[in-house]
Amino acid sequence: MAAALIEYIRGRWALRTGVLRLLPLVGRRLLAVAIALQLVTGLLPVAFIVATSTVVGRIPGAVEHGLHSPEWRSLRTALLVAGGLFVLQQVAAPLEWTVGQLVSSRVDDALRERATAASFGPVGIGVLEDEETIDTLGDLIEPWRGTGFSPGSAAVGTLFLLARYIQWAVAAVFVGVAYTWWAAVAVAAGALALRVAIRTGFGRLQRVERTRAPQRRRSGYYRDLVVTPQAAKEVRVFGLLGWIRDRYSVEALAAVQPVWQIRRRNIFGAYALASPIWLALSGVAIVGAARAAAAGSLTLGELAYVLQAVALVGSLGTVMEEADFQTEHGLRALEGLEELERQVAAETRDQGNADASGRPRVEIRFERVTFGYDLARPILRDFDLTIESGRSLAIVGLNGAGKTTLVKLLARLYEPQQGRILVDGVDLRDFPAHAWRRQLGAIFQDFVHYELPVRENVGFGAPTLLHDDERLRSALGRAGALEIVTTLPRGLETVLSRQYDGGADLSGGEWQRIAIARALMAVEDGATVLVLDEPTANLDVRAEAAFFEQFLALTRGLTTILISHRFSSVRRADRIVVLEEGSVVEDGTHELLLAENGRYAQLFRLQAARFGS
Question: 0.70 exceeded by the pTM?
Fold first, then answer.
């Protein structure tokens, strides 16, 4: 029991100090109201049992002396006081809940703003893809995907527990005043022992629930497949509802069954173990009070108070308070947020201050770069590549060759695990990330379809030019998308989603041209490196070849990097490199690579024959 008590105290101290960091977010006035309300709701039950005990104690005298006696008037006054206290308790309960919701909202809103700010902070996206980070922040950003308790819940839970402890302490003191000190100590210690045992079980339960976060996340994903429009077509056409339902059931049960087991074993087991202690100590106090009343040293009212107070003191340990779950689980999201902020701060401190404007003037060089999303299986290993400034480079290869990974490293969405990337001889990490990215215009294969007007979908390539219609139309024209926009109901102001009034949706090829225009807007704003990752995957092969021919002419003089797995569409590039398994296997012009009759020539002819060109 001593070890359990020490563990309990340490755990509670860590949790409460965590909550103390949250309370300033509530605001002084609301926090003062919340604390005052907890003091009131903590004292009202004690006052009520004092009043009802007084009523019980005054009944014999009132009965003996009649309706018009002072004893009867005293009983009536006690009844009125007890009734008033009862009404106050009914009023205080919903008020307590309302204030608790305000406290929770203020804390969570403030922390969501911090989480949003932190999510913009990392130089790369690796932290945001980390499973543990996603899971720990889930209870803050999307509580329904996690345990359902946020840091705001933890703050409210701790305030609710304040009322419980007030009741426990004041009721125990009154037992000592009304009866004897040893009875007060006995019931207080018994209730605390029961609480320690159950809370220790709660702690073990919470640790198990943490390990089930991946299962909760997957079950949430399967649920979203059914209820969100993105997957609705395929789910219904392919008849996937039954399969998704089964997978949802499997993952949901995998998330909760271990929790059920640990709950039965640790919480109810702890309750069964500690209950005899509570029953023995409270029983001694009750029997002692009853004997004292029988001997005449304790009045009927005092006995009534002791019996009610013992039950009230014991509620600290016998009620599995929701506030405990709120505090236990809610602070996990706070821990995740603070860890994310620490990582962001560390990355920010490591940023250099070299001037990125106008670069590259000579070249970009990948020097013995090794990188892999799984360290055991690197995608790039000792990778070397020089990209000359002001020329067009096409990077081709089969899926999985490392083409997109190379671009992500260049954009500093990830950092090399070994080696370095040099820009005019300067390590890429020596430039502030935001300054280097201003030199880039990039469209990735999985570019975003913003449910926003055309103006934003194109202008996001250069936010400072969002309201420059001439440049927006110029970028759209060069991307072959101006005619598409002129047919839309509101032109540049048309929202690209049918979920909005007056909105419109586009085909895959049309969306791709909008995305290309977005990249060209970055060039309008001074970007010197233009990266297009599979920019025409939704166009047919002839339209793609025509686009590349026009595009390379329009971007002459820029450092242009084209990623494609279609060998036949990039023949106009100044230089072509072929990637296989994360390495450059061929390097040269289209004509030179054909003459070498190697991998490029083989795949080019294979694809050309397939498409009849």
Answer: no
